[in-house]
Amino acid sequence: MTEHKAKRLSVSSASPYEKIVGFCRAVRVGNLVAVSGTTAGSGGKPVAIGDPAAQARAILETIGKALEEAGSGLEDVIRTRVYLTDIAHWEAVGRVHGEFFAHIRPANTMLQVSAFVSPDWLVEIEADAVLSGGSC
């Protein structure tokens, strides 16, 4: 019996938490890409403090870049998970999600969590994508 191990591609970011926690921004194996929970800020420094919609926009741009580095794109996203520190922000964040995914319409879950590592982060989003052709 021959065992085939799919090639693994890891996409790193400027997050200082990658080495501490042992993760990367995205991982592609074959035609699957998983993007880690992403917050608004490069290098662990929050951006758009107090504005959940602007944070969601920055997050989805970061996710888009990670997908591109993995040979994918937003059009391949099949599932997103949106975490909010205040569920009252659901509509503002949901509208931004809709700007990016209105025509793609991935499966989505939105829920409230108690806190993130930085109290300035109001939103965290993760995404899963499936490419329609081949492997990396």
Tell me about this structure:
The protein has 136 residues and is an alpha+beta fold. It has one domain: 60s Ribosomal Protein L30, Chain: A, CATH 3.30.1330. The protein has helices spanning 17-22, 52-69, 90-101; strands at residues 8-11, 26-29, 32-38, 41-42, 45-46, 77-84, 107-112, 123-130. Strands 1-2-3-8-6-7 form a six-stranded mixed beta sheet, covered by helices on one side. The chain has a two-stranded antiparallel ribbon with strand order 4-5. Strand 6 (77-84), helix 3 and strand 7 form a beta-alpha-beta unit. Helix 2 (52-69) runs parallel beside helix 3 (90-101). The two termini are 23 Å apart. The mean pLDDT is 91.
Descriptive keywords:
60s Ribosomal Protein L30, Chain: A; six-stranded mixed β-sheet; alpha+beta; globular
- Low-pLDDT windows of residues: none
Rg, rounded, reads 15 Å
Q: How much helix is in the residues?
A: 25-40%
Find the CATH topology. Answer: 60s Ribosomal Protein L30, Chain: A
Total domains, how many?
Answer: 1
What's the mean pLDDT score? 91
Q: Report the total helices.
A: 3
Using the alpha-carbon principal axes, give the shape.
Answer: globular
Order of helices and strands: EHEEEEHEHEE
The rounded distance between the terminal residues' Cα atoms is 23 Å
Count the strands? 8
Largest sheet: 6 strands, mixed
Write the CATH architecture name.
2-Layer Sandwich
Strand order of the largest sheet: 1-2-3-8-6-7
In CATH terms, the superfamily is: RutC-like
Strand content: 25-35%
CATH class annotation: Alpha Beta
State the secondary-structure class: alpha+beta
